[in-house]
Amino acid sequence: MSQPRWAVVVPVKRLSAAKSRLRGALPGVPHEDLALALAADTLRAVLACPAVAEALVVTDDARVAAAARAAGAQVLPDQPDAGLNAAFRHGAAHAPAGWVAGLTADLPALRPTELAGALLAAQAGDDGVRRFVADAPGLGTVLLAAPPGVDLEPRFGVGSAAAHTASGALPLPGDWPSLRRDVDTADDLAAAARLGLGPRTAALVAAACPARSTS
Ligand SMILES: Nc1nc2c(ncn2[C@@H]2O[C@H](COP(=O)(O)OP(=O)(O)OP(=O)(O)O)[C@@H](O)[C@H]2O)c(=O)[nH]1
Ligand SMILES: C=C(OP(=O)(O)O)C(=O)O
């Protein structure tokens, strides 16, 4: 039997407001270009993942929407424009019946095989329970997965790993460094670069600091 395939919801904030903690991380690179590259590399990995049938990008940003459509994603408006969890709920409500995952759009080192491993692990329990992947420090969440017929019930934000656990979701323990490596700060970006960045982000890092691209 073939593995059931997933709809993955990927919310992206307006680029002018997104990733504020990263502002100035790449000297000479416009901040919005960096925020767009992070999302584009995340989405590229999502769409290259064999377990994924569909990506739904929730955004009100025209550049993000154009890049997402060009990559093959469906684009939904950021309704009701009430923050990240509302955006996840909106995307999940438009996903086809089946397995649904929510993923943050700040994973520029994401490898499709690691995403596939996490999605497969989320299906292994077959017990109707939501599962999540915590970020590298263990406090936040990068992926939340819900079985068919189960609400995604996203609780992203500060301390979201504990919030997801408190809501009945179970943490997935797998070793997926590129999935767990979300990028909020310049240090996170350096850590993601050590794992290997996607092409859009790598090009901007190289443009900001050419010496780094050859090391
Ligand atoms: N559509 C949508 N996406 C959001 C919203 N808030 C956050 N996101 C996305 O959710 C992901 C994780 O959020 P954060 O890491 O907090 O990102 P952020 O709010 O852009 O970053 P900071 O300004 O540094 O807090 C990022 O990919 C954001 O683009 C929102 O209100 N709407
Ligand atoms: C949105 C989240 O994280 P951060 O803002 O730290 O990326 C989260 O971990 O739920």
TrEMBL record:
Enzyme type, top EC level: transferase
EC number(s) of the enzyme?
A: 2.7.7.105
GO BP term, example: F420-0 metabolic process
Report any Pfam family annotated for this entry.
CofC
Q: Which residues bind phosphoenolpyruvate?
A: 141, 157, 160
UniProt keyword terms in alphabetical order = GTP-binding, Nucleotide-binding, Nucleotidyltransferase, Transferase
Report the pathway entry: Cofactor biosynthesis; coenzyme F420 biosynthesis
A molecular function (GO) term:
phospholactate guanylyltransferase activity
Protein origin, superkingdom: Bacteria
Q: Which reaction does it catalyse?
A: phosphoenolpyruvate + GTP + H(+) = enolpyruvoyl-2-diphospho-5'-guanosine + diphosphate
Report the function annotation for this chain.
Guanylyltransferase that catalyzes the activation of phosphoenolpyruvate (PEP) as enolpyruvoyl-2-diphospho-5'-guanosine, via the condensation of PEP with GTP. It is involved in the biosynthesis of coenzyme F420, a hydride carrier cofactor.
Family from the record: Belongs to the CofC family.
Q: Which NCBIfam families match?
A: F420_cofC
The record's section on PANTHER family has:
2-PHOSPHO-L-LACTATE GUANYLYLTRANSFERASE (PTHR40392)
Q: What is this protein called?
A: Phosphoenolpyruvate guanylyltransferase
